[in-house]
Amino acid sequence: MAEPPVPKLTLFFPDDFGDPAWAGTVYALEAPSTARGEWVLGRAPDCNLTIRIKEVSLKHAVIAYSYLRDRWTLADLESTNGTFHNGVKMISGQVVELKLRDRIDLAAKGKIQVVEDEDDTIRNEDSGPVTISSTTPLATLPTVPPLPTLEPATPPSSKTPWDSLYLGTQWVISGQTTAGKIYRLIVAGAGVAFFILMMDWLTK
Question: What pLDDT, on the 0 to 100 scale, is given for residue 103?
Fold first, then answer.
C-alpha cells in the first residue's frame, strides 16, 4: 500500500529579498509524519529559517502544519514591526491559514510568497508577454483622398417673361406715368357712363 504524500508548503523568496542568502531561492517545508510541524522565522541563529534583515525580529513569526486540521497556518510572535498576510497586518494571537499564492511580509524587503513549486515562481527578469505593434511609419500608411469641393449651386431666377410683362403693365397703368393717368381717366369715365345708363334704364 502506497504511503500518502507528505504535506509540503513551498516558499519563494524573490530576487530582491533583503537577505542575500535567501534571495531568489525556493524552500519547501515538509511536515514530519508523527508530530506537529513548526518553523520559526526570525533573525536568531536558532530559528528554523534565519533571516538576516534588521527590520525582522529575533523570533518574528511561525509557520505550522496541523494533521488534525490538515492545514498550514501563520502566526505573528509579537514582532516589533509586525507580520503582514496578503497585505493585512496580523494582530497578536491571530492565526491565519496559508494557501497557494498567499504573501507573507516580514519587512519592506522581506516578502515571501507561497507557491506550488519552483516552476510556479515569478522572477524579476520576467517582463511579461511581448507586445506586438505595427512597424509601419504613420507617413506611409494609406490615406483616404479628400472629398472634392462642390461649387454652390446658382438659385433659379424667380422672374419669368410673363412676370416682367405683368410688372411693366402695372407700372404703366399706375398714377406715376402719363399713360397711367390717361388710363385711370378712361376707366373713371367708363364707370360714370355705365352708372348713368343704369339709372336711366331703372327710371323708365
Answer: 98
The domain in which residue 26 lies consists of: 8-120
The C-alpha atoms of residue 19 and residue 60 are separated, in whole angstroms, by 15
| Listed residue (86, 17, 15) closest to 56, CA to CA | 17
Higher pLDDT, 55 or 191: 55
pTM of the model: 0.57
DSSP state of 14: -
Cα gap 15→187, rounded to integer Å? 118
AA identity, residue 201: W
d(CA 113, CA 42): 16
CATH number at residue 25: 2.60.200.20
Residue 146 lies in a domain: no
Per DSSP, what are the bridge partners of residue 39?
63
User: Closest Cα partner for 112 from 178, 63, 153?
Assistant: 63
Q: Would strands 37-42 and 49-50 be described as parallel, antiparallel, or unpaired?
A: parallel
* Residue 195: count of CB within 10 angstroms of its CB: 10
> Whose CA is closest to 82, among 102, 101, 110?
110
